[in-house]
Write a structure and sequence with these properties.
Length: about 120
């Protein structure tokens, strides 16, 4: 079994910062890429940022210059530093990993989500 557990969400004022963390555990053989998605009420889940094993990153246009994704391959963790937060960043944020388990299966795994609310 593989688990992804997020932490770090909460309530922050516009212009503030939050740091999300996600730890993957279980029978993991290799993680190919780890990502952050978000989903606001009534909207589709959307990709926020992605980071590959070699550290290559890509960001959605709406977070470029404000959010930074980072990864610790040795610990199977990924973080999302969110600065200059806006009310429109309010959403549930989900950690995602595309990985191979020890038994050989390759697939997508998701965390349970952590709520980020940006409001004064």
């Amino acid at each position: 079994q593989v688990q992804l557990v997020e932490s770090g969400g909460g309530l922050v004022q516009p212009g503030g910062s939050l740091r999300l963390s996600c730890a993957a555990s279980g029978s993991i053989f290799s993680i190919y890429h780890m990502d952050w998605y978000r989903q606001a009420p009534g909207k589709q889940r959307e990709l926020v940022a992605i980071i590959t094993t070699d550290g290559s990153t890509n960001y959605a246009d709406f977070v470029k210059g404000r959010f930074t994704i980072s990864r610790d391959n040795a610990k199977n963790t990924v973080a999302l530093q969110m600065n200059s937060l806006k009310p429109e960043d309010t959403a549930a944020y989900y950690c995602h990993a595309y990985l191979r388990v020890v038994a050989g299966h390759i697939g997508d795994y998701w965390g349970q989500g952590t709520q980020v609310t940006v409001s004064s």
